[in-house]
Amino acid sequence: MAVFTPLGDAQVAEFLNRFDAGSLVSLEGVPAGTENTTFFVTTDRRELVLTLFEQGEHEELPFFVELLDYLDEHRLPVPGPLHDRDGIALHSLAGKPALLFPRLPGKHPKAPNLAQCRALGDALGRMHLVSQRFPGHRPNPRDLHWLLPMHHRVLVYLSPEDQTLMKDEVEIYQGFFGNAPELPQGALHGDLFRDNTLFEGDRLGGIIDFYNGCTGDLLFDLAIVINDWATEADGRLNVERHDAILRAYQARRPLTCVERDAWPMMLRMTALRYWLSRLLVVYVDPPAHDLTPHDPEQFRAILLARLELGALPLPEVNA
Q1: Are residues 48 and 184 in the same domain?
Q2: 2 within a domain of the structure (yes/no)
Q3: Together in a domain, 258 and 151
Q4: Burial 88-108 (b: 16+ CB within 10 A, else e)
Q5: Inter-CA distances, 20 with 10, 45, 93, 100, 201, Å
Q6: According to a count of CB atoms within 10 Å of the terminal CB, is the N or C end of the chain lower?
Q7: Cα 29 from Cα 38, distance rounded (Å)
Q8: Would you call 193 exposed, middle or buried from its count of C-beta atoms within 10 A (0-12, 13-18, 19+)?
Q9: How far is C-alpha 199 from the chain's CA centre?
Q10: Domain carrying residue 68
Q11: Dist CA 64 CA 80 (whole Å)
């Protein structure tokens, strides 16, 4: 059960009094999640989600509030946080920072179909189009600047072959991105896996969990999506899902020539990013709570597939 800070009905009922959201009817802990405590809150007026932040840099939480407010104002399918009667969203509950959100409809797609892929590509394209004007700033915490020092911490746990693979890849990324023209920048989700979306059938109900949100290369976000949404169990790319996402995305925001040139390398770098972060959780910095870490091997296989087979051709966009 990923409820690290238990709450009682009386605590939550008092908390709700600050908001124009109705009176508490029921409170249910949410078992999913690896970092924060989440409850489903039902009032006599609506369904809500209450999140307590257990770890991370709490001073960065205002950035996430501002980003979600901004995207919500631009009618993106994201849960804009509730603000209290004084216009404040971020509060403290049980000694932890707390945010209250509307509960969005739908379930995580385990095996997304092409209609769901198109819906996700369209929403991400819309998001990146408007996010280029978002005034907030938070450096990408998992980009090349993170890879350079952090990969040294896991090398001792790897086979000689994997040590060479990781060191060579990081050196290649440093040479490529260090000399490449700057890529288009904007606000990113930073972790847009399938389990951070909600679907009702083929309709995208919402994009959730923006706590890896940051500003940086838009292409970084898109590569994370393709490596999860359009990848088979053996690491190979699925052409139909790949093209469905990228056609819908580019109908909103066509990729630039610089982005097209960088695309194969970005797919490799974001695959290594997750291989490394999962290795760090397994060997170096295990979670504070008794949770099963994600398997690093999945993204090692994805990286090897990208190296062996390269990137698929990017679909062309009708002018």
Answers
A1: no
A2: no
A3: yes
A4: ebbeebeebbbbbbbbbebee
A5: 17, 10, 17, 12, 31
A6: C
A7: 6
A8: middle
A9: 16
A10: 9-102
A11: 10
Tell me how far apart the alpha carbons of residues 2 and 31 are, in angstroms, rounded to a whole number.
5
133 and 98 inside one domain: no
31, 2 Cβ separation under 8 angstroms: yes
- Map tokens 């959201």 to a residue: 21
| Cβ contacts of 93 within 8 Å, gap of 6 or more | 7, 11, 12, 15, 50, 52
pLDDT in tens, the chain (319 residues): 467 889 999 999 999 999 999 999 999 998 766 678 899 999 999 999 999 998 766 888 999 999 999 999 999 999 999 999 999 999 999 999 999 999 999 999 999 999 999 999 999 999 999 999 999 999 999 999 999 999 999 999 999 999 999 999 999 999 999 988 999 999 999 999 999 999 999 999 999 999 899 999 999 999 999 999 999 999 999 999 999 999 999 999 999 999 999 999 999 999 999 999 999 999 998 765 656 778 999 999 999 999 999 999 999 887 5
**pTM of the predicted model as reported, rounded to 2 decimal places:** 0.94
Sequence-distant (6+) residues with CB within 8 A of 216 are 139, 140, 143, 185, 188
Could you read off the pLDDT of 123-159 as tens digits, one per residue?
999 999 999 999 999 999 999 999 999 999 999 999 9
Domain total in the chain = 2
In this structure, the answer to whether residues 82 and 143 fall within a common structural domain is no
In the three-class reduction of DSSP (H, G, I as helix; E, B as strand; rest coil), residue 38 is classed as strand
